[in-house]
Structure formats: structure tokens, C-alpha cells
């Protein structure tokens, strides 16, 4: 996950490959609650790991459920069998509607029948999301509920015992959020000593989510009788029975970004999306039909989709989106690539989601330059051809962040492509913590569009440290080019080659089986990270680096690191030779005394013995060789910014470089 203030997406051009979706949020939290209320054990496979499931899990634990993660396997949930273990608890539910609503219903009913006191609270936005209709329905049933802030909103206090009135049908509004009905359906089996009837008042929205609820209840042994979508009966004597094992489907709303990606950018080979398909329970899988109407070519298997671009530009759309409320946000961004204005209708529920999504989408689309009209329950988006680089505010709303990533394909409809900045990208953790990593796996950009920041300088000036810090802050890929020279030196040495024979050393480069993963370097099967860090490897590197043949043999390997979303490259000639078009080139220096001292401390802290004088002599010899060689000698690129960090802390250097970087970005 990118836990950084912003993530800049360079102009993207194409997409291909396979993505595996994380588990559905709606199914995960429903299954967890049902497993938690059931008697016995349930093995939950493919559970979504996200903010919203984390708050549900934390609550179940407080309520006395036992949770055990089988390493690399399912989560084992041992339920409370409908009997309260802990009758007095405070639960924090973040911004998770899928936890707040059903837990309110379940705990209100349990408190009424078994006694207890529960406080349910969330983040500030959760306290602005209405829950009054559910509270009213539960009070009608005889539950005691106090709204601790504003009437009709969380935080709530649920207490009991109190006498329940189950003989009369309980009435709940269906036209604001179907989650109120879902909450009652999930919870009422707890008290179904007689038939309990729920009547929906008003037209029920988001029916597919209620369908998921009914299907999952069935798997947990509860056969609800439904009369149309207006009246539901929970039969007397209903009891949750664990099915033993449950597999959570991939998240169909999350699939929408990749379906859209295929429609926009998979011109050659399709994007394959695994985890949802034609057999999916989730209503949002019908997003596929909307994407097809806009031109996507889709092939559906039971549990996978393959999507390719069909019509281009996309075809404008006028759609009632009531059946795909969450996924429909993606259509608003697809509309930018259409051949006319697109209208999304019947989306009033957007106004009470993580943020007011109609207002948010309109505001952010306009920042890109789009012309947008909005009404109480509709949004019209006009196609965009003159794009502006924009900083997209994400309102702590995962879906805003994910759907605006698709704006980075603007280069497919304009000659002057622009990057897109996504603020607070970690908000995707709500449903898809690795969304951007997954996206980056399947998209490509033109190398010249991918920004590079270079840091060159003499040994122990702090290049590696600064590069790590800056790359981390920007979410960029890192190239420690010295490691490539070190690995080449080491491999040549081990092969018994004369390190002064440039042609012989260069000849082994193509066959080097070198991999960089998670800060470790492997050569073939062997982890050579520590060997590479030794001073001896640095000297060997400097020796082989003097040969033009070796430098050119390593050139393409270095260029291959220029990957989405951007690159920070450190070495000797990153700015002067390898990435001459980098928008920011830093030449980092520090006095020889400072550098020798830093290297000394670095080695000592790793338990490697060293002498200050020896180190200084080595580094001066290495500097002399690096500066004096004819091939790519160590010297600042013409347009480099010099930085002497002798008297600076690491943070000061980092912040200065980030400030220079900010000056060069178009946002
Ligand atoms: N600005 C700085 N101030 C103090 N120490 C630093 C600074 N930059 C780096 N260092 C320290 O100096 C040591 C050498 O830095 P390193 O990044 O390995 O250098 P290089 O990659 O240039 O050889 C590290 O232990 C690092 O923590
Ligand atoms: N881009 C690069 C990177 C390293 N090198 C060579 O590789 C040696 C080791 O590089 P490094 O960056 O790992 O070394 P330190 O600066 O960490 O000591 C340097 O002394 C250079 O001779 C190079 O020539 N060009």
C-alpha cells in the first residue's frame, strides 16, 4: 500500500495481463458477522484484508468470538452461538457502514433479550451518515437505542433488557440505503422465536445487495421467505448453522476499475480479471453490461472476466445506475473518453456514502478540465480532450481514488498527455489495499513519460539513503545502480576473470541471473546482498565500472528500471549518461572526512570492523578512479543541482530534494 501524501500517475498508454481481485467487502463483512453469530467453527477463505473488515474482526473479538488465522490459509471463526459472552462493550467501527448497520441491529436485539450495554462509534464521517431509519425500526421492535450525538446518527448506545414486540411486522424504509434492511435480515434470526415479518416502506434500492444477504443467510441455514422485494419473513425457530467453510468471492465493485481499464486501454490483448464472473452473487458484476454498452468487449467465465477495448472512443451512455451504485462511479471517469455526454441517473445514494460522491466526482472531474452537470440524483459528464494536470482530492473515499486512476490514460485521446496526482492514495485500504500495486503490474507507459529523479555523487555521500527516502515519499521504484556494478564485479571475480579485461567481464553480463526483490539481491539461487555491501565489492565494482564495454552491457538493465509510477536512480552517471532527460538531477557531495566517518559508523553498526584512515584512503582512491576514468567519469551533469549535505541531516536533504522535485511537477 502507498502510505504517502500523494501518488503521481504518469500518462499511461496500455494495459494487459491478469489481476486477481481481493475478496468482496460486502460478502466478507456479512460472512464474518454470520460466522460470529453461529454456533461452532467456520473456515472463511479469501477474506478481504482491509480497514472495513479489520473493524468487524476487532468487534467480533470484543464480543467473544475466537479468531484464528491459518497461516497462508483461511480464517477460523468460532462463533458465540447467539449468546452474549461480553455484555458491556464499546466498539469503534471506523467508516464501515457494512459493520455499523448490522452490528447495531444484532447488538440491539441481543441486548434486548439477554441484557447488556453497547456503544457503537466511528470516525467523524460515520457520525454524519444517517442510521435513523434503522434505529426507528429497532425501536419499533422494542429495542432501547440512544443516539449520543445527533438524533438519527451514530454514535449509538444500545441497552437492555427490554421486551421485544415481534408479533407486528417491523417496517423499514428501503429508499435510502438497503443496508438497513440487510441489517435487520442478518440480525432478526437471533430472536425469531416466532415468525418475524419485515415490511419495506418505499421502493427498495440496491436490491442486488439484499440478494447477497439472502443468499448468505441461506448458506448459514436461514431460509427467509420473500414476497417480492416488499415483505420478508424470517421463519420461527430460525437458527444460524455454520456451513463449515465459506469462500468469499472477489469484489465485483473492485472489478469495475479493471473492466474499465480493459475497455479503455487493452487494445491488443485482454485484461483477465479473476475472482468474479457470470456466477457472481454480487450485483455490481452487472457493471460489465454498462461497460459493454460503452463499447467494451467482454468474455465471461464463471469466476473470471476477460475485457478488451471494442469501440474507441467509448460510446456515450445514459443509464439508471440504481443496480450498480458503487461501480457506477467508474462510469463517470470512463465518460471522459466517450463520444458524447454521458448521464448517470438514480444515484441519490451517492450523497450519503463515504463522502457526498456526486459532489466529489463533479468537483474532481472539473479539475481535470471536464464539463460536468449535477442534480440531486444524477450526474452528466462531457467528454474531455483538453486535459489539465490535476491533484485529485479523494475525500477518504477509496472509490474516488481508484476510479480517478483511470484518468491517467488521457494520452489515448489527446496529444498533450498529462499526469494525474491522487492525494492520500492509502484511502484504497478500505477495500483494496494493493490497488495501485495491482494496477501498476498490468499497465505500461512510454519511458519518456515516466519521471526519473537521479542522485549521483561520490561514495558514502548518502546517495543510497537519500534515494530510499525520496523514493519512499513518492512511491517510486528505486535503482541502486552501484549494486549492478558490484554484482558484476563479484560475479566476474567468482568466475576467475581478470577484472581489468573489460571485454571478458562485459561478456558475462547477459547471462547474470540477477534479481532485486524487497531490498535483497540474488544471483542465481544465492542471496548476495551482504557480500555486495562489503567494501571489497565496492572496489571490484569501481574496477569493472571503468570499462566502456561493461557500462554499455549494463545500460539496458538500468533503463529497464524506468517503470510506472516513476524512478529514483542513484549512482555516478545516472543524470549525465543513463537518464539524460530526468527532470531533476541531484549531485550529492560531502567532505571526504564526513564521508569516511559515515562509512565507518555504517560498517561498525553492522558489526564489520574498519579503520577510519583505511576507509578514507579507500574512498579517495575510489573517487580518483571514478573521476579519472574516460567512460562516464564521476562528474555532475550539466543541469544537475549540487547538494553538499556535510552539515545536513538526512531529513533536511530529503525535504530539500522533494521541494526541488515539487517545483518541477505541473501540479
Ligand atoms: N545527510 C546525512 N547526514 C548524515 N548521515 C548521512 C546523511 N546521509 C547519509 N548518511 C549516512 O551515511 C551513510 C552512507 O550513506 P549511503 O547512503 O550508504 O551512501 P552512498 O550510497 O552514497 O554510498 C549511511 O549510514 C547514512 O545513514
Ligand atoms: N552508476 C554507477 C554506479 C556505480 N558505479 C561504480 O560502482 C562503484 C560502487 O558503487 P556504489 O554506489 O555501490 O558505491 P558506494 O557509493 O555505495 O560506495 C562506484 O565506486 C563506481 O565506480 C559506477 O561507475 N556507476
UniProtKB/TrEMBL annotation:
It is an enzyme of class 2 (transferase). It holds the Pfam family EPSP_synthase. It comes from the Bacteria. ATP binds at residues 457-465. Residues 622-648 are annotated as: Disordered. Residues 454-657 form the Cytidylate kinase domain. Residues 16-439 form the Enolpyruvate transferase domain. Phosphoenolpyruvate binds at residues 25, 97, 129, 179, 357, 399, 430. GO terms for cellular component: cytoplasm. InterPro entries: Cytidylate_kin, Cytidylate_kinase_dom, Enolpyruvate_Tfrase_dom, Enolpyruvate_Tfrase_sf, EPSP_synthase, EPSP_synthase_CS, P-loop_NTPase, RNA3'P_cycl/enolpyr_Trfase_a/b. One of its GO terms (molecular function) is dCMP kinase activity. CDD domains: CMPK, EPSP_synthase. Residues 639-648 have a biased composition (Polar residues). Pathway: Metabolic intermediate biosynthesis; chorismate biosynthesis; chorismate from D-erythrose 4-phosphate and phosphoenolpyruvate: step 6/7. SUPFAM superfamilies: EPT/RTPC-like (SSF55205), P-loop containing nucleoside triphosphate hydrolases (SSF52540). Its EC number is 2.5.1.19, 2.7.4.25. One of its GO terms (biological process) is amino acid biosynthetic process. NCBIfam families: aroA, cmk, PRK11860.1. Monomer. Catalyzes the transfer of the enolpyruvyl moiety of phosphoenolpyruvate (PEP) to the 5-hydroxyl of shikimate-3-phosphate (S3P) to produce enolpyruvyl shikimate-3-phosphate and inorganic phosphate. Belongs to the cytidylate kinase family. Type 1 subfamily. This is Multifunctional fusion protein. The lineage of its organism: Bacteria, Pseudomonadati, Pseudomonadota, Betaproteobacteria, Burkholderiales. The gene is aroA.
Amino acid at each position: 500500500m502507498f502510505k504517502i501524501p500523494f501518488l503521481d500517475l504518469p500518462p499511461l498508454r496500455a494495459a494487459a495481463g491478469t489481476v486477481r481481485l481481493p475478496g468482496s467487502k460486502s460478502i466478507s463483512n456479512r460472512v464474518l458477522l454470520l460466522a460470529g453469530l453461529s454456533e461452532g467453527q467456520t473456515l472463511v477463505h479469501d477474506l478481504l484484508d482491509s480497514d472495513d473488515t479489520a473493524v468487524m474482526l476487532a468487534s467480533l473479538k470484543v464480543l467473544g468470538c475466537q479468531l484464528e488465522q491459518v497461516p497462508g490459509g483461511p480464517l477460523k471463526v468460532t462463533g458465540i452461538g447467539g449468546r452474549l459472552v461480553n455484555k458491556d462493550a464499546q466498539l469503534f467501527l471506523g467508516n464501515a457502514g457494512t459493520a455499523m448497520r448490522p452490528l447495531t441491529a444484532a447488538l440491539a436485539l441481543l441486548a434486548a433479550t439477554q441484557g447488556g450495554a453497547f456503544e457503537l462509534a466511528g470516525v467523524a464521517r460515520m457520525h454524519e451518515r444517517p442510521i435513523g431509519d434503522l434505529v426507528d425500526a429497532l425501536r419499533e421492535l422494542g429495542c432501547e437505542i440512544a443516539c449520543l450525538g445527533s438524533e438519527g446518527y451514530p454514535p449509538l448506545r444500545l441497552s437492555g433488557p427490554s421486551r421485544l414486540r415481534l408479533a407486528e411486522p417491523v417496517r423499514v424504509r428501503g429508499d435510502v440505503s438497503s443496508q438497513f434492511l440487510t441489517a435487520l435480515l442478518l440480525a432478526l434470526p437471533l430472536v425469531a422465536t416466532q415468525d418475524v415479518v419485515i415490511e419495506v416502506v418505499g421502493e427498495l434500492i440496491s436490491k442486488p445487495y439484499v440478494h447477497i444477504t439472502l443468499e448468505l443467510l441461506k448458506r448459514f441455514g436461514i431460509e427467509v421467505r420473500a414476497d417480492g422485494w416488499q415483505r420478508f419473513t424470517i421463519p420461527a425457530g430460525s437458527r444460524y448453522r455454520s456451513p463449515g467453510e465459506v469462500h468469499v468471492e472477489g469484489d465485483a465493485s473492485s472489478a469495475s476499475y479493471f473492466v474499465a481499464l480493459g475497455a479503455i486501454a487493452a487494445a491488443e490483448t485482454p485484461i483477465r480479471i479473476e475472482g468474479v464472473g457470470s456466477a457472481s452473487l454480487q450485483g455490481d458484476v452487472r457493471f460489465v453490461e454498462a461497460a459493454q454498452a460503452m463499447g467494451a468487449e467482454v468474455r465471461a467465465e464463471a469466476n473470471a472476466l476477460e475485457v478488451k477495448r471494442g469501440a474507441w472512443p467509448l460510446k456515450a451512455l445514459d443509464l439508471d445506475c440504481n443496480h450498480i451504485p458503487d461501480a457506477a462511479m467508474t462510469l463517470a471517469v470512463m465518460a471522459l473518453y466517450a463520444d458524447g455526454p454521458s448521464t448517470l441517473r438514480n444515484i441519490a445514494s451517492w450523497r450519503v456514502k463515504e463522502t457526498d460522491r456526486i459532489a466529489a466526482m463533479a468537483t474532481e472531474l472539473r479539475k481535470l478540465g471536464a464539463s460536468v452537470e449535477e442534480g440531486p440524483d444524477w450526474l452528466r459528464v462531457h467528454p474531455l480532450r483538453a486535459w489539465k494536470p490535476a491533484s485529485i482530492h479523494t475525500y477518504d473515499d477509496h472509490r474516488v481514488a481508484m476510479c480517478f486512476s483511470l484518468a491517467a490514460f488521457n494520452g489515448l485521446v489527446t496529444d498533450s498527455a498529462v499526469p494525474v496526482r491522487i492525494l492520500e492514495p492509502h484511502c484504497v485500504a478500505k477495500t483494496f489495499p494493493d490497488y495501485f500495486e495491482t494496477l501498476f503490474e498490468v499497465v505500461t507507459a512510454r519511458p519518456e513519460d515516466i519521471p526519473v529523479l537521479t542522485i549521483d555523487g561520490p561514495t558514502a555521500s548518502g546517495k543510497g539513503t537519500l534515494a530510499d527516502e525520496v523514493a519512499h515519499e513518492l512511491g517510486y521504484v528505486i535503482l541502486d545502480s552501484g549494486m549492478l556494478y558490484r554484482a558484476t564485479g563479484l560475479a566476474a571475480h567468482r568466475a576467475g576473470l581478470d577484472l581489468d579485461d573489460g571485454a571478458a567481464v562485459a561478456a558475462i553480463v547477459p547471462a547474470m541471473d540477477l534479481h532485486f526483490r524487497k531490498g535483497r539481491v540474488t544471483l542465481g539461487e544465492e542471496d548476495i546482498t551482504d557480500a555486495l555491501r562489503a567494501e571489497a565489492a565496492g572496489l571490484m565494482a569501481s574496477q569493472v565500472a571503468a570499462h566502456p564495454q561493461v557500462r554499455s552491457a549494463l545500460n539496458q538493465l538500468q533503463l529497464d528500471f524506468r517503470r510506472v509510477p516513476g524512478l529514483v536512480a542513484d549512482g555516478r552517471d545516472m543524470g549525465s549518461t543513463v537518464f539524460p532527460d530526468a527532470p531533476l538531477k541531484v549531485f550529492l557531495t560531502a567532505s571526504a572526512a564526513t564521508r569516511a566517518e559515515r562509512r565507518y559508523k555504517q560498517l561498525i553498526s553492522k558489526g564489520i570492523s574498519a579503520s577510519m584512515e583505511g576507509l578514507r584512503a579507500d574512498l579517495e582512491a575510489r573517487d580518483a578512479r571514478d573521476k579519472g576514468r574516460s567512460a562516464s567519469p564521476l562528474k555532475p551533469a550539466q543541469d544537475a543541482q549540487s547538494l553538499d549535505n556535510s552539515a545536513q541531516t538526512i531529513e533536511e536533504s530529503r525535504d530539500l530534494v522533494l521541494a526541488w522535485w515539487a517545483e518541477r511537477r505541473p501540479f
